[in-house]
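Human: I hope this is not a bother. Would you mind checking the protein record under this note? Thank you for your patience.
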Amino acid sequence: MSGPNGDPNIPSDDGIIEDEDEFNEEEYAAINTMLDQINSCLDDLEERNDSLNGKLHELLESNRQARQEFRGQLTTATPPGEEKLFPDQDSPATEGEKGGE
């Protein structure tokens, strides 16, 4: 006799799991309660993640603004004739910086 997939010498009843364990209402209620608790924990983690993400974006923006202010203070505090630490990208280059064109 062939098996369920046409395999020879395998009885068709072999490998079938008889699920004799029947869950009662209390077990389903306990499983449902556990799933609700897991869902609640996941919702809490998602809220914390969103909050941390928002705070991170605020911190990045604050750091960006502080860096721009610091660069502005450095460029205005540089006496004439001295090199700037952060040269303007829009300023024309000198002959030495152009590569002797």
Observations:
- Residues 91-101 have pLDDT under 50 and may be disordered.
- Residues 47 and 53 are 10 Å apart (CA to CA).
- The helical segments are 25-77, 95-98.
- Residues 25-77 form the longest helix (53 residues).
